[in-house]
Design goal:
Blueprint lengths: L1 E6 L3 H20 L4 H7 L2 H4 L2 E2 L11 E2 H10 L2 E9 L2 E8 L7 H9 L4 E5 L3
Parallel strand pairs: 2-3
Antiparallel strand pairs: 1-5, 1-6, 4-5
Length: about 120
């Protein structure tokens, strides 16, 4: 099992992060991603970490939201769990092939909430 460890998720954002992770996990399991549902669940400060090329926003250094969703949808990963401790948290997933793709997109689940990645043992 691959693990991405992180720190610096504000207490106020943890429930939103868990909710997003569970939505992505269930979407992956069902094989159906609804990008607008995912967008509607993101708090405003998280939305600011993406741009919407489909809405005419200009490209900059942020992820294009639909490209991010596409990477999560098509990566060969099974999302397992996300949990927190007093010092940080970890996101667990299985890589179903090597390379599985989507590792950077999976990290972005945490980074979008201003989390700092401390380790990632995915290949």
């Amino acid at each position: 099992m691959a693990t991405i460890k992180f720190r610096v998720i504000p207490e106020s954002g943890r429930e939103d992060l868990i909710s997003l992770f569970e939505l992505i996990k269930s979407s992956k399991e069902a094989g159906i991603f609804n990008s607008e549902e995912i967008w509607s669940r993101l708090p405003g400060y998280v939305k600011s970490n993406f741009f919407r090329g489909d809405k005419g926003e200009s490209i900059d250094n942020r992820w294009d939201f639909l490209s991010w969703v596409d990477a999560l949808e098509h990566c060969e990963q099974e999302f397992i769990d996300i949990n927190f401790s007093w010092s940080g948290g970890k996101l667990e997933f299985n890589q179903l092939s090597y390379p599985s793709g989507g590792v950077e997109a999976t990290e972005e689940i945490v980074k979008a909430f201003n989390g700092k990645i401390t380790s990632n043992n995915a290949i």
